[in-house]
Design brief:
Length: about 100
């Protein structure tokens, strides 16, 4: 049985940060919904704006939620993107008109 190769933790963290930065760039520069899903599922929170409505997507314990709704939240980012509504419209349907404000 082959021995496991040791992991360079510093390099792993550095590469992970670079990858997160690249995905964030795709979100901000290309308005890529796939990048939004990856970032949200990795624990990031985001502030968005649609028309005059500014809202957050955040992570209450055990779920992901959007501040425009009072329901229990969603199990993952994909479910939220498909089912959540802002001003009565599905988030995915209005994605191209949403302004990205803050990513935490």
């Amino acid at each position: 049985m082959d021995a496991k190769r040791p992991i360079d933790k510093e390099k792993y963290i550095e590469n992970n940060v670079k990858l997160q930065d690249e995905i964030s760039d795709k979100l901000f520069n290309n308005h890529c919904v796939c990048s939004l899903i990856v970032l949200l599922d990795s624990g990031k929170e985001i502030q968005l704006k649609y028309n005059d409505c500014t809202f957050w997507i955040s992570h209450p314990p055990g779920k992901i939620a959007i501040s425009t709704e009072t329901n229990e939240g969603y199990s993952n980012a994909y479910e939220l993107i498909i089912q959540a509504k802002v001003e009565g419209k599905y988030l995915l349907d209005i994605w191209d008109d949403i302004e990205i404000k803050v990513l935490l």
